[in-house]
Known about the structure:
- The protein is mainly alpha-helical and 107 residues long.
- It has helices spanning 28-43, 49-58, 68-78, 84-103, and strands at 2-3, 15-20, 24-27.
- It has a three-stranded antiparallel β-sheet.
- Helix 1 (28-43) packs across helix 2 (49-58).
Amino acid sequence: MGVMQCNRKGCDNILCNKYSSYYGYICEHCFDDLKKFVISRVRMGSYDVPQMVKTFMETPKHSDLNYEGAIERLLEDMFTPATDTETDECNYIVEEILANCRRDTCY
């Protein structure tokens, strides 16, 4: 691992072990974020990976581009942990469905 500054805008990490002759150095943390960013864009139907990398490297590290954390917080707020009572009720319903399914040979 070299003592080289990460070339992602806004990243102050100086321990980079990945290098591109076009994009420069990238630290492990930014590289992990880059992989997630590219994969999410490809899943949405975008296939211009070089443009995605360029956009990622030019976007500040702590920007809204890294929306995964924000989405996780939003989903956590939307779905609160189930109480033991709710979990028990859900398990009971599932057991009833499975029992009926077995009786009716529902596969």
